[in-house]
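ok here's MAPEG family protein, seq below lol
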Amino acid sequence: MTVAFWCVLFALFLPYLCTSVAKFGSGRFGLRENHDPRAFLDSLEGFARRAHAAQLNSFEVTPAFAAAVIIADVVGNAEQVTQDVLAVLFITSRLLYIICYLADWALLRSLVWALGMGVIAAFFVVSA
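and the structure came out like this:
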């Protein structure tokens, strides 16, 4: 299995890392809140709410990343090392994005998000 494919697996679990930070970082999550976790997450504020927002964004972007990796692999025009480097860059951008979101660095977060989207586009460019 390639590094790029392992990065897809890693990307699939990043939202759950954010969820854990949101739930347990709030200091309020317990068995009662687990009966309706979506309502609980919607009620959060501050740091925990930003973790929840990072979770939602991670769920949104992961399918595009997975598709880009799979398409690049199927097309086969890009060297595997190029695909692997791009995948690691994407994961790095996502980790930085989450850090920026949690730290409430809005402008930097947006720039890192744009970088990640650029990496997804780069998979298509190098595969053309």
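fwiw The chain has one domain: 3-127. kinda neat tbh
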